[in-house]
């Protein structure tokens, strides 16, 4: 990668000599170093704020001042970001946040079991290549790739549904499944869809729009439209899953906290040969009528002891939307249950 890291103690005529231990990180390509630092060193400032180190730039070298552990973390983050630039990728604020969450862990360390040596954890689709942006996301992706039934539980904005759809598209493209089935409970209308205007598609689409949005991120529009028309990709409310057996499919149930206990059992038992399921939900945002038991809560309690089923839990620190979203979620969590 053209990087040299040299831990040492500040010395000599430098005005910072003796002030703190330092680590020097040297980069071979000064043009890439400019991109690494960001406009007005904004990227370095964000790394400083998160790790507590001070970063000084001298030529093609960055000097990290601070506690040894913090310096080590900052150096790993800088290496990971420089590696992205060497691979031809740009750097945005979201990439800085992602590497800070991951602590600069090499992408190859996050790869699923059985992956070829040196291969990074990456999901490839027609339009995007997806890499995890937190350790929880990495664990979730590995679980989705390795297990037939996976639960992703945590607050909004952590990428639970987005990553599940990405893996579904990836496996569909690779021929590992024959179709994709995406579902959601239509709780807001009590699933009495006849009260809404229009044909069945008009009635269903408002509830399913987040799933369409995710699919459009991964597949070209014309191809997606054709696959939906051929029913190789299906998007349907949970109520329409009853009586089906889903074979050779990747099935995603989104907003699972709004499924009743009976609906959840019904959905889980649709799993057929050659299929995989991902169940995603936010246990803190149950919209069921008062007194109704969330199927997500009950399934978690009943299935937790089955080793073949994967459970990944996300928290506010895993939120990959605007940084204020994480702080909002934390504030609500501190305040306790909503009345």
The end-to-end span amounts to: 54 Å
* Outline: elongated
Q: Average pLDDT across residues?
A: 82
Strand order of the largest sheet: 9-8-10-11-7-12
SSE arrangement, N to C: EEHHEEHHEEHEHEHHEEHEHEH
Stretches where pLDDT falls below 50 for ≥5 residues?
Answer: 9-19, 115-119
Could you characterize the architecture of this molecule?
With 339 residues, the chain is α/β, with parallel strands linked by helices. It has 11 helices and 12 strands. The chain has helices at residues 30-37, 42-51, 68-86, 93-102, 135-146, 160-173, 200-218, 221-229, 261-268, 295-303, 323-335; strands at 3-9, 21-27, 54-58, 61-65, 123-124, 129-130, 149-153, 179-184, 233-237, 249-253, 276-281, 309-313. Strands 9-8-10-11-7-12 form a 6-stranded parallel β-sheet, sandwiched between helices. The chain has a 4-stranded antiparallel β-sheet with strand order 1-2-4-3. The radius of gyration is 23 Å and the shape is elongated.
Brief write-up:
The protein has 339 residues and is of the alpha/beta class. It has helices at 30-37, 42-51, 68-86, 93-102, 135-146, 160-173, 200-218, 221-229, 261-268, 295-303, 323-335; strands at 3-9, 21-27, 54-58, 61-65, 123-124, 129-130, 149-153, 179-184, 233-237, 249-253, 276-281, 309-313.
């Amino acid at each position: 990668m053209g990087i040299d890291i040299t831990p040492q103690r500040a010395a000599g005529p430098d005005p910072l000599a003796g002030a703190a231990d330092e680590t020097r990180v040297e980069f071979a390509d000064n043009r890439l170093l400019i991109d690494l630092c960001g406009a007005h060193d904004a990227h370095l400032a964000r790394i400083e704020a998160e790790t507590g180190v001070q970063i000084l730039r001298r030529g093609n070298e960055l000097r990290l001042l601070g506690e040894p552990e913090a310096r080590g973390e900052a150096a790993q983050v800088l290496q990971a970001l420089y590696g992205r630039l060497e691979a031809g990728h740009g750097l945005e604020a979201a990439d800085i946040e992602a590497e800070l969450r991951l602590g600069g862990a090499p992408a190859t360390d996050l790869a699923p079991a059985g992956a070829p040596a040196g291969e990074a954890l990456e999901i490839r689709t027609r339009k995007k290549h997806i890499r995890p942006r937190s350790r929880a996301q990495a664990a979730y992706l590995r679980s989705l790739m390795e297990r037939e039934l996976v639960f992703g539980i945590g607050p909004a904005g952590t990428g639970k549904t987005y990553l599940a759809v990405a893996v579904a598209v990836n496996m569909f493209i690779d021929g590992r499944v024959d179709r994709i089935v995406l579902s959601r409970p239509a709780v807001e209308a009590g699933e009495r869809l006849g009260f809404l205007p229009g044909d069945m598609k008009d009635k269903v689409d408002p509830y399913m729009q987040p799933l369409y949005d995710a699919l459009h991120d991964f597949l070209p529009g014309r191809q997606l439209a054709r696959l939906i028309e051929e029913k190789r990709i299906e998007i349907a409310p949970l109520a329409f899953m009853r009586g089906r057996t889903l074979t050779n499919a990747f099935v995603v149930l989104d907003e699972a906290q709004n499924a009743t206990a009976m609906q959840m059992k019904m959905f889980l038992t649709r799993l057929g040969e050659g299929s995989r399921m991902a169940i995603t939900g936010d246990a803190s945002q149950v919209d069921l009528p008062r007194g109704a038991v969330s199927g997500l809560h009950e399934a978690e309690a009943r299935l937790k002891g089955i080793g073949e089923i994967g459970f990944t839990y996300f928290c506010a620190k895993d939120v990959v939307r605007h940084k204020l979203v994480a702080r909002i979620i934390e504030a609500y969590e501190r305040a306790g249950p909503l009345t």
